[in-house]
């Protein structure tokens, strides 16, 4: 074969090899990055899907939804928010997400009913180049960003508050406590539970413990009634309730069960009803998770994901969701009791004094120095 022809063929083969290597590297990089989204612009606007899990907990409709929508409007005035609440039904949430994708949503903010089941939503969205921001609960699958609170810390704060108040009354093992945990389908509930156990185990007697399907206050009330029957009302000195809804259910059961004084009961979410119970002395504490920064971070993450940019704001960490390490922001929870209620809930404007101190609670508010 002619030497020039051989040299030309060798050069061509070399270029082909380089092209194949470059193609392989490019493909590998894309796969490893897990990147989706991009291509949208704030100037043109785009559709954003907001999927919240349920309405039994008052925070979602009262705080999360309007706060997220307001921040999205500020960051992207021409963007359109598509909103749905799943009413604690994971299949319904799946259908809602599919409908949003059909309507052209370019990014989803997802607070999953069931974290594992929501992996299907995340995977389906990624297949359509739509990024997903996991909000409050970390879904499985190729999630782009995640914002929540340090959920094990929440449980530790609850457990420590209960342990401290029981210790003030004497030996914390002098009788039993009841643990009413959250929904078994919510990964946050598992973290709350683990955090509380890390503080309470070996230091108190756990007489009865339950997981509460759907975070239902009614089911929590039934569980507490069962515990009272099994242990006896005189043998219960404290209740770990994972949120304010389950705390309300437990307190209702204790009142129906003839308790003249409600033993210290924990909570979470700083719901108005819980704040009023704290003022009245029925509930000992709640965990205040400032929803405004969480909501605003989620909105900023959604805009960043849709426009193909990195999230810039609060300090991020990596949290593994069983699929990958997700860039995350974990905020710090605060314990609220009657003693610091005015300096936290009232000072931050979560509720006004007028909202808390209705006629039913006016005297208790005055006694607590809330006015």
Q: In words, what does this structure look like?
A:
The N terminus is likely disordered. The chain is globular, with a radius of gyration of 25 Å. α2 links the parallel β1 and β2. The chain starts with a helix and ends with a helix. The chain has a 7-stranded mixed sheet, with helices on both faces. A 3-stranded parallel sheet has the order 7-6-8, with helices on both faces. The protein is of the alpha/beta class and 371 residues long. The protein contains 13 helices and 12 strands. α2 crosses α10 and α7 crosses α8. The protein is 46% helix and 17% strand.
Largest sheet: number of strands, sense, barrel closure = 7 strands, mixed
Mean pLDDT value: 91
N-to-C span: 100 Å
Q: In order across it, which strands form the biggest sheet?
A: 2-1-3-4-5-11-10
* CATH-scheme architecture of the largest domain: 3-Layer(aba) Sandwich
Number of domains: 2
Supply the number of helical segments: 13
Structural class: alpha/beta
Beta-strand percentage range:
15-25%
* Helical residues, percent: 40-55%
Instruction: Provide the low-confidence segments as ranges.
Output: 1-35
Radius of gyration: 25 Å
CATH topology of the largest domain: Rossmann fold
Provide the CATH superfamily of the largest domain: Response regulator
Order of helices and strands: HEHEHEHEEHEHEHEHHEHEEEHHH
- Dominant shape: globular
- The number of distinct β-strands equals 12
What's the CATH C level of the largest domain?
Alpha Beta
